[in-house]
Amino acid sequence: MDSMSKALDAWAQSQGITLHFIRPGKPTENAYAESFNGRVREECLNQHHFASLTEARTPRPRQLHPA
Q1: How many CA atoms lie within 13 A of 25 on its CB side?
Q2: pLDDT (tens digit per residue) in 7-64
Q3: Domain residues of the chain, as ranges?
Q4: pTM of the model
């Protein structure tokens, strides 16, 4: 478990929150997130050329939420 996972687990436990994880190979258990990821890929990442990975990771609110 990496440090971020440990921190999230500790925080959730301190707040009385039980974390439920998606089973490996079962993306349909989180269809909302998978749908969002697909939409971002189609509407933003597949339609734009990024010069670097850093540029692709930079939030682009106008691209994700057109006016």
Answers
A1: 0
A2: 999 999 999 999 888 888 777 777 888 888 888 888 777 777 778 888 878 876 665 5
A3: 29-67
A4: 0.37
